[in-house]
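User: I'm curious what two different proteins look like when written out as structure tokens. Can you demonstrate?

Assistant: Sure. I'll show them one after the other, since each token string lines up with its own sequence. Here's the first protein:
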Amino acid sequence: MARLYIDGDEVRITRRDLCTVDVEFYGGKTIENLEPRRLFPVSGLSKYITLIDEKGKEQAIIRNVDTLMSESKKVIEACLREYYLIPRITRILEVTDKFGLLKWAVETDRGNQTFEIRNRHSDIKLLYDGRVLVRDTSDNRYEIPNYKQLDKHSLMLLSSEL
């Protein structure tokens, strides 16, 4: 079976639930109760969004969310934000190294957090666009949207770990 790609304004996407949508094609076809997921969750924030049904089967792929009509785009972005709920680090308060385990105390958009990191080389990733992804020992994820916008103290602590 060939993949069904959604390009541009050929569909209307409406929100059904917190993380599910209905897709109505202008030709009359409707696919209901689909969950948007990123095929490339780290690098493809708005491109190649798969729409899967309740059985986990892919029904369609949105090539680029930016080409959708504004209401459909808002619906997809809201579902993705809810599904990929990643706290954003706004300040790094303290980093301590004890027996090879890094303990971070940070401020996030969801409140203060303290967590541990096992391996600074594999659990702290600097991406090409200035984002930093952090994974703790419990496999929780955190994001610094743009490390260059951190305050001096946070930047100093982060630069010693990159």
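Here's a second, unrelated protein for contrast:
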Amino acid sequence: MSLDGMLINCVNNVRKYLESSSISFDVVGYNPFGDVSKRFDVEAENILRKCIVDSLKDVVFIGEEEGVNIYGNPKWVVIADPVDGSTNFSSDIPWASISVAIAPYRRGATIKDVSTAIVAEIFRSRAYVFNNGFVKIYGASEERKKIPAPIVLGYFEFLEAFTPLLRYLSLSSRRLTIRSLGSAALDIVYVGLGNAEAFIDVRAKLRNVDVVAAIRIATALGAKAVECSNGLRDALDIPIDVPEKVKCLAVAYDNSVLDNLLKALSNQKAMQ
């Protein structure tokens, strides 16, 4: 089975579990990032990890719920968030996803090394798959819009997080709509498709497990992504071989949108 075929199969196993009547929403502890873990989060990661390890054997698996696990003599690194949008999922709000990326293993591997990635919607049978430099969309005939929708996506839980947003609105020649939807992976992919023009998150709460697959897919579609907490770094240089916070992330439909985003984010310090 091809790498992308294996990944789709493993993701479908997770989706079947999440669609079943046997899931539990009980809190079972905290994950390595300090967030609450629910039973369905842990079980979804167990299903995904077992399926991938059974197929690839020699793997470093980095998951949101259990951190780093090493199997055999690593040839691959897998970084995953089996339920991105757990709060939405728990509340039956249909905006959540399964996010997984795979790269040949090396110390210091980054998103640029990702060879295969998938972001799959949980509440409908739609998946976005990056493989060998191309993106294929399963479950829809959607193509990238020539002009992005006038929508800005992101997370604005704190008053300070609105500051770059207000700057960005002042720089735009269009009337923009703001949405905070609850699954960063899906938000970023949607920017890549042109269903929104930008994504902003300066809360210092994102982790690489949340966004690696989505960034690989969105940038392959033509989007631009920047990690912006200490100076500016191409988001494709975010490490994937260790868990890491992504303190400030901006994703733009194209370079013209990115220019305004960077002006809005100038001197921005991520929340600590």
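A detail about the second structure: Residues 151-264 form a domain with the D-Maltodextrin-Binding Protein; domain 2 fold (CATH 3.40.190.80).
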